[in-house]
Structure formats: structure tokens, C-alpha cells
């Protein structure tokens, strides 16, 4: 299982018995290999990377040992452990494991998360490294390239522009960086063969990791430019970079005309779009020659570097030195009395210093490999983790700043192992070192812990260097970004990484740590940590904006900053990142720019192409993200520069305001009209800043929040009527109406035989999770609405009265007493409250059982809110148990030996108990937990509402999947991960968890979950956080295949007893996959949000088309036709106000029709319908009914005799489904509702 676990066969002195104790190791080995197969680990069909020969041999030997040499035990020294019969004589006794084996077993369990985790890592690493058998052609090519570079002819010194023109004639452009050389330039460029050629980078140290998106391994070749080519002042005004660019172009021009050049494609590539970091890339042609390394999937990168003895003085390259001496109005003073003052160029200086680092990095990594045995594997794990999250090169949207960031990753581990330089004035180094004997997993986890706590904005880090730091730490105080100086004390490896990108890295590290540290946990952390591609934008960010930069015009562009950063494109992106981060402030945990990494370009193109489109991803801090006012400096601020800076940032949005506490301050106010719009405040800020500072209008910035909001809103024509009526609507209005009703009922205590103890809400309208905000419907308001917009959803509540011995012991009598209570409450309420209507509803029209709780009290308040109240009697379940013959019928010590025949009353009681437990025990508890989550997590309510809307629009909600199931699944994204949560949790603490902070991200997470969820394994959600588990008494006997367990429902079938069944579960997975693929259109800007909620109908055998003009819930339809919501009467001159409108709470004829079809034809077809105003009903025949079968009485479906093939054949009485008759019956049942019926061909 781990290296060193098995002994060599020639060391076995005496034969040993075999006992196969456990097959767990074998199972784990298969699981690990399966995980590798799931990941796309090769670029050409899976042949690029295989487990190396040693690894394969080890795994095969392990399998062999598993079959023939498994350890038989320790007991009794060398005494054999008894074996089952038939195996006693097969083998002789076995020795106990030796100390080395025991140590390996212990290390596997202690130094790694688990032994299986180590096995998975061991199986993963060989598959992300190049295959050794494919390296020889590369080595032959490198030898030839080395000889070629040594023989490149010299070029005499010449003017840089003249030299560029000569090379241009050969089809080679010189990638001169800013500031470009001019005709007045008085220095020259030249070429001499390199003084030294070294293989550097990750390839030389064998720490290369397979890049993402099929990109090639990079084989870096450092070509040292001779010292004679440089002068002492070449650090000024880009002279070094110009000479470097000419040196590179000369090699390209010579190479393309050589025989060696005919074997490769030659191109330029500029890391992060910076011309100063241009390198020459050689990609092999597939010609099957001895030097063809195409199968290796690698490229050779030629990097001109500076020798350590060059005449350029290093002390001139400190971050505080100004090496761009160009006089502009931005950075100089034209007054002759004051000499020009040049600004520091820290990024320019750092780019120059990078030409000195490759050889230092090579030696540093090599030393770390020798000092720390697990360093190579730890670095590989760290880079795999980073690659899966976009912190690397890739053709998809990558996090800005991490292109060619190899030095950053190994410097991070070097910091943990060697520590950092002490801070000035600080006596003790506060950073503790990690041990050099740690495993790769422990080093990887230590790196994540550092990243999760690393404050890149405040913490300046200097990795400990044997020679000490070259530049004083104070020189980095004004560095415009993060600072982490490498162990060679030359370059800041984070110089080009925006602070927002590092904030996202910190967030991802914390999220991964949370996954790895989970104790109560369902799932495999290895898969999510190393194998899952986490670059999807919709599940990663709370807000995603697509920005077209083609029309960007910066308001304040400085030539100095442009040259310092390297290019106008980089300067623009750096400015956008800085301004947006400043504008959002503490509203966001991370704001990141994403774009594809730099691509190779022809050597005839001097400068890299800049990205025209970027994405801006924002992760909210829910405590601050949605505030409406940003306060600035006070009006009497003495320092005017502070006021000017605030006004410059916000532009015309900044204004002086006086607040209630008397303060007069500069402030920015964001106007919103609804709660949904408040969630848009961060996006509004970004849009304003992009327009004010860069001239990017609404058409250049795309977002999708409004499209999602429209799915949860009533049509504008209907909303206008509600707003005009002035009634209180929404969740607050419903809660207020509920509180008022509770007070009114409690005031009736003197008129009721028992006092009311408690009223428990169990409606989604009172826990913020109904798809549409609840609205009342009074008779006066109903007259203003069309008939297909007059649906009033009843709010369900449960009444609990004080205990009394006067309740009867007969179930039928209990139901009768409930009716009497309802009648008394209804009469008393109507007397005490003017305008209130109450009636007792007897039966549900479906069940005729007298044992089941069916009666409700229907109350319609004067404002138009409807409530359905039920009475909970606690002894009812005991009476049901007596009928069932369960635990309550016998004393604990009495066991009945006779099996009595089950009576119909027994089955009635079973069904009644199932309804009772779900309605009176689980529903109130579930309601309280979900309501608490809605209060603590701002995105939870919207996530649930969008998820329900999606399932409903695909004809699954309510009919096949209960609303409570959706709420529990969505809750798993917020309380899943073993986070303790209960009603006493501090809200500020609760919000610190790494959970979605927008409904759009929560919805994308829901779709991803359904796509990947292996529902065969079930789901456990710690919804209640009580720490105690209580199993439900009933065992699963229904058709439901989803198991969603909580602390109070360990079996996981309270809400999934009968559905979704296997057909529906597979349908959900297929729809989730299709929706997920559709959501990827976000990356191309083509995402049509409503398209995800339009249901395909080609899979149904029957389609019933309903008349939308008579459907009370048509106003909720996904694609509602506004023309059908107009109030047109039968006659043009007749007003509808004269007609009395009767409000019917909960009356939905379409849903009643669907329920009837599902009940009557349960064995014939399966029905699908959108409960939110759907105008079509789909049905799928049971395919088994189309097969001929013998006729029998009460067959369960409408059948027709099968026609005989010929008259002479025997009549076996075979029948088949009578589809025509069934369709005719449906048409008769749906008279008045159906417009037409469509049958699939």
C-alpha cells in the first residue's frame, strides 16, 4: 500500500500462511486509480502520462502480495492465525511485519490524512509528471540546440532602430519594450554568442507539473548574454530590455534559417503580456525524427539572462530607485529652479532583476530537495491544487497575476521551512518553522494554512537568505502591491500579482482547509482538492461581470505608470483592479480580474495582443456588501487632499449630506427600490467606477443578476395593481398578518374550552423560501385583476392547545372534536374581527379515511391573507400506534407470537401516522431551522427560491419533489461541512463561513450538486445542529431513491418516502447536466438566463395543452404572455367591476387535475407539470404496459385485446394498453381546462 510495506521474496526464510483479512486496501487502490481516470490526464487520448515503470511494478507487486503474501497477524509470535476450513493446509505460518513495515503503516496514517489519501496521492503524482520514456528525443534536441547557440555568428554594434529594420526584412520583429528607442538614441545593440547555457526552471529540477487545458510542459533554457554587450547605465530607460530583445530576435532570425529551425515552430511569448519578459518558444514539428519530442507535449523556452558579473550595478535596482528618466507633466516640474523629480520604478526594477534569478532559483530548489525529502511531492501537490483553481497558465479564464508564477510556489515552501528575515525593531521572529521531516501532505497543508492567514496588503515577507537581504526592508514600504522577496534576495515574486488575486487565493486556501479538516463529512476531500476543476465562474464568485475593454479610455493615465508596469494594457488592468478594490473596500472579500493567459505569437509580431474582454469576479462579505451609504471625509476636513481623493474616486456620485446624528460628510448613496435591488449594490458600484474612470458604458459591462430577479417577480402589470392598492405585501406583510392572527386567536381563550399554547407556522411563505413573495388578495383587489391572476396561496399553520384528559380515546372522535374546535374558533373570530371570514373545510377530496387528520380552518383576513390552520393533538400518535399494533399496544416485556392478518384499518392508520409525523413533528421543526438559516445567510433564501423555480419550470417540483427536499439540499451548501449551527449561533460568526453570498452563486452550486451527486450514497445535512440524532420509527418502504438525512431523520426518507423514484432521479441528473452545460455560455457572454428555465417537451408521449385564460396561477408562468393578463370581458361595453369576484384560497384547477391524473393513472403513466402557472402537462407511458400480457381482472390499467395475426392462431387472451381510450378519458376529465392533446409520433 505504501512504499516499503512489502518485503523482498528472497528475504523470506520460511513459508508463511495466507489469510485474507480485509480487502479494503485493494478497494482503495481501485478507487485511487478510478479517480485518476476521471481526470483528463493526457493531451492526446491518455498516452502522455503513465505511472512510471517503478510505480507500476510496485503496484503490481502489491496486488500479488495481496493475493499471496498478506500478513497473517501478530498473536503468538510466529504462530499462525487459524484459517477457515479448506485453507489450513494451503500455506504455512507467517511472520509478523517487521519494524520498517510497521513504521510505513504508521506513517501512512499519521503523516497523511489517511492511508487511502496517501494511496491516492501516490497514484496521482506520476500522472501529472512527464513520462521518462519520452524524454530522450528532447535531450537530443537540447544538445543540438546548445551547439547551435554556441555557433550563432556575432553582430556588430548598431543603432537599435537600424538593427530592427534589418531583422524586419528577414521577417523577424524585435520586441522592444516601452519606452521605445528613437532616432536620437545614442547607444547601440549587438550580439555575441552566449557565455553560458543552462537548463533551468522546474524541468531541470524535475518538479514540472502538467499544465491545464492541454498546454505544454515548459523546458526553460537560460542563455547568458556576455557582459561585453552591456554598460553601467543600461538599467536606465529600458536600455537593458532593448538589448535583450535584440539578442532574442537575433537568435530567432538565425534559427529559422537553420536546419534545426526547420524541425520546430518558432514564436514569441510574453508572460503576463509584458514585452520585457518575452521569451523564444520552440515547439516541435511532428516529423518522427530523432529529435521529435512531440509525444512529450513540451516546448523549449529560450530566456536571455544576465550574468552575476555584469556591469549593471544591483544597488540601482532597489524598489525606491527611479530608472525611468522621461520628463512628463505627471512626474516632473517644469520650473527651472527645481530640478525634475523622478518617481520610483519598483515594477520596472523588479522585471530587470528577474534576469538574474534563473540560476539562483535552480540552485535554491535543488538544495531544498536535498534538505527536505518530501519537498518535490509537496511542491507538485501545491501546483496541482493551484492549477485546478486558475492560478496558472490556461486557455480558460485564469486569475490575473499567476502566469509563470513558479518561483512563488517554491518560495512559499522555502518560507515555511527556513523562515523569514526578522522585521526591523522586532526582536523575535513570529513565524514558526515547519519540520523538514514532514510528509508532502503535511507540507501542502502547512502552505494552505499560511495562505489562509496571509494578509498580502499589510504583511511584507522576506524569505530568509544565507547572505541576508540586498536591499533594506524599508525600501519596500511604498511598493504598490504585495511583497514576498525570494531567498536570493533579488526579486519580489509577487510584484505583478494584484492584491485582489491574492485575496482570492486566501479565500480558496481557507475553503480547501475547511474541506480537509472536516470530521463529520460525506464525500472524498481528495477529489475536491486535487482532481476537480474549480475554475467555473458561476460557482466561484457571488457576482460575475463581463467587461469589453475595446472602448476603454482611462480618465487618468500616466506615462510613468504605463512604462513601470510594462505596457498600456497591463497599466489599464492594474488601474481597474486597484480602483475597484478601493471602491468596494470591505464590501468584498476578494475582487479579481480573470482572462486567458498570454498566447504564443509569430516572431513577425513585436508586441503581445492584449485581452479585449475580461471577467470581474467578486466574493462578497455579507456583513458589509449591501449597505446603501459610503461615508467619506467630513466637510470640515483640514486635509483637503483627502476630500479631493474621495471626490476623484466617486466623481459625480460624491455629495455632501447631513445625517441624523448631525454630521455633515461627503458620502455616496446607492438608490434601491426593492430588496432584490439591494443585492445589486456591489455591481452598481463596479459599473459606476468603470464608467467614471474608464468610460465604459452599460453596453460594455454585462451582468446577469436582473435576469435572475425577473424569474422571482410578478409581471409588471400585476405588480402595479398591488402597489396601487397600498396593501402590505411580501414576506414581512405575511409575517405581520400571521402575528396579528395569533393575537386574535389568543384573545379568544375565554370562549374556547382549552387555552392556546402555541401556533407553529409550517408554510414556506413564512420562512422566506416561497418562489414568489406572498401577496394578499382581497375581493376589492381581485376585481382589478384578470381571472388568470387571482390565485391566493394559503399559509399553513398548526395550533397547539393545552393538554387535557377530556380528549377522547377514539381516533374518529378526535377528528370530530377538532371540527368542533374549528367551528367555535371560526364563529368567535368573525364576531371579534370585522371583515374576517372563516370557514371549516372538511376533507381533502382524496382520502376517505376517518383516522387521518384532514379538516382545516380556513381564515381570510380583512387585508386578504389566507391561512389554513390545523390542530395538533399529541396523543393522536399513540392511538394510531394502538391501531397499527406497534410499540404502544403492548408492554415492553410482552412479545406477541401470533401473526394477525392486517385489516384495512391497519393500513389506514399507517398512512395516517405517516401524515401525522410529517405534518406535526417534522414540519414545524423543519420550518424553524430553515427560517433561522434565512435570517443568518443573506443568500440562502434566494438560492432556495431559484432552485425551486428551476425544478418547477422543469415540471418536477411538488408533483415529484417536495419543497422541503429542495430547502434541505440548499441548506447543505451553508451548513454542510460539519459547521455547527443552531438558533443561538452568533450571526457575525455564522457569516464568516465560506458559503455563497448571492443567490446566483447559490443556484449554480445547486445545479452543480445535482449534476455530480451520487444519490445512491445519500446526503447528510446537519440542519439542526443539536448534536443528537433521533431516528424516525418508520422504515423506508416507498419508491423514493433520494436519501437526505438530518439529525432528526437518520433514515433520510421523511420527505422522500414516495418520490423522486428512479425515473425522476435520473431525469433530474440529466436536466442538471444540460443546465450546467448551458451555464457555460456565461464565459462567452451568451448566457440567456431564462433559457435555463424553458423546459424541453420532446421526451413526452402525451402533452396536454391547458387554456391559460382560466388558470388562476398563469401570472407565475416562466414565459407569461402579457396580452393574456389584460382584463377583457365578453362584451366591450360591460365593465367587470359589476361582477362579484369570489376569492378561493388555494384553488388551482390545473394542479387538482394533475393530482387526479396521477392518482387515477398511477400504474399507466407518470405525470409532469409546472405548478407555477404551467400551461402544459406532460405524461410518459409505462413502457411495460405496451408489451402483450394475459388478461386478468383488476389489471390496473385500461386494456384492449391484442389482434390475432391470423384466425387459425390460438387465442391466448393477450391484452395491451388501450392508449386511445385513456386519452379519451383524459379529454373527458379535462373538459373546460384542456385546449388540445398532442401525442408523440
Please tell me about this protein's structure.
By secondary structure, the chain is of the alpha+beta class. The chain has six domains: 182 residues, Beta Polymerase, domain 2, CATH 3.30.460; 194 residues, Poly(a)-polymerase, middle domain; 118 residues, Alpha-Beta Plaits, CATH 3.30.70; 185 residues, Beta Polymerase, domain 2; 158 residues, Poly(a)-polymerase, middle domain, CATH 1.10.1410; 134 residues, Alpha-Beta Plaits (2-Layer Sandwich), CATH 3.30.70.3030. It contains 35 helices and 32 strands. The strands form nine sheets. A six-stranded mixed beta sheet has the order 3-4-7-6-5-13, sandwiched between helices. Strands 8-12-14-11-18 form a five-stranded antiparallel beta sheet. The longest helix is centred in the last third of the chain and has 33 residues. The radius of gyration is 37 Å and the shape is elongated.
